[in-house]
Design a protein that fits this description.
This protein is α/β, with parallel strands linked by helices. It contains 22 helices and 13 strands. The structure holds iron/sulfur cluster. The site of iron/sulfur cluster has 14 residues, from helix 14. Iron/sulfur cluster (SF4) binds next to helix 14.
Amino acid sequence: MIDAGTPSFPEAARTALADAQLRHNLGHATQTIRAKRAAVVAEVPDWQELREAGRAVKERVLRHLDQHLIGLEESVTRAGGIVHWARDGEECNRIVGDIIAGHGVDEVVKAKSLTTEETRLNEALAERGIRAWETDLAQLIIQLGDDMPSHILVPAIHKNREQIRALFARTLSEASPDLTDDPRELAETARRHLRKLFLGARVGISGVNFAVADTGTVSVVESEGNGRMCTTLPEVLISVMGIEKVVPTWEDLEVYLQLLPRSSTAERMNPYTSLWTGVTDGDGPREFHLVLIDNGRTHVLADEIGRQALNCIRCSACLNVCPVYERTGGHAYGSTYPGPIGAILTPMLTGMTAAKSLPYASSLCGACYEVCPVKINIPEVLVHLRHEEVKASTRARGVRERLSPEHAAMRAMARVFASRRLYEAAQRAGRLAQWPLVRDGKIRRLPGPLRGWTAARDLPAVPSQSFRDWWRDRS
Ligand code: SF4
């Protein structure tokens, strides 16, 4: 999920921030989608109750995850499907590759799937001589440009229409010589390219949004219809599903089918909600494989605070409101899951060594928590992971946590903040000590070990009059 040699978030963010075109594309796209989401969410009078239901169902599922997964396996098998279990990405890729090779096929069509991005399935299949064609329009753009996705829902959010026109003109034989950047023309070009692939494919691969344990029904929700083509036209369908995607019943599914479209694409319902149960004679694929993958999820489940990240329904609302994401874009996170959800999920799935800078990729403003349709308290998990990271790095430096400078500084701050007398004394001392550093009401550079704080931001100066002093003067 994070490749060796991937730069840390601060390094990659610095490069992204220098790209004015990228910032313009991202700012425009996220502001538009934010406004649309807010409007459709405001139409639902019981939105908060719906969010609470979404959170509660997921929590219940996670408490009995083993039972729900075994129930799902039984239901899928009863309906004629074949269930596989994969401990990690490598095992998942091997299972999928073996199924494809078993059918003597060297080309497959793929619906958009974050889980297979996580396992680097395309690359693993390519090593076995199998070409996986992405069919989601944005994923296709990424694949043709040999690029990386930068958003969960809109992987090519960093590209504008002109960049896509140039890419299609260069890479697709279906592009007319006078192709313009009109979205209709671009979509039509992609459609002509994809139709041929859909009609010729014998094996399709998809992800899974939800799977109902009661009946073994699997669901994919999407906006373009390519997912439905992938899951219905080929003879063989392979769906790869993270183990946290199971829901017990159709009533539970109903909650998420209301929460997801408004939070993700700002639509009242998904344009395409595909649901299938095993295999049916004369209708759809004749062979259905469901690959259930762990890949670090049970490790996340073991973390009492962090496990709420498994509630995520990948709507991307938290990305669209995040001030950090809006400025850096998704590539800076260096992972399949960018934005606030990536900042908590990636370090827990991959381990803190590879992703230790990600929990710091946040201003802790709380906007992500406010919009999350399943109420994941992302700031709480970020702080928890920062604590874990500090503990691990102090241990690695051979310093006992209680003796580390950070720990001593935090203890001192806690004492100051707990006492009005000490707090006011600290304010007075700060006012005096800061005078050589203040310019235009701001401190741009702190001295000594504190300089890291001002490396990327200004510090507001302690005001000449505190709120309490102001209040006292008027009472
Ligand atoms: S964390 Fe919440 S808001 Fe973010 S993608 Fe997941 S469900 Fe959506």
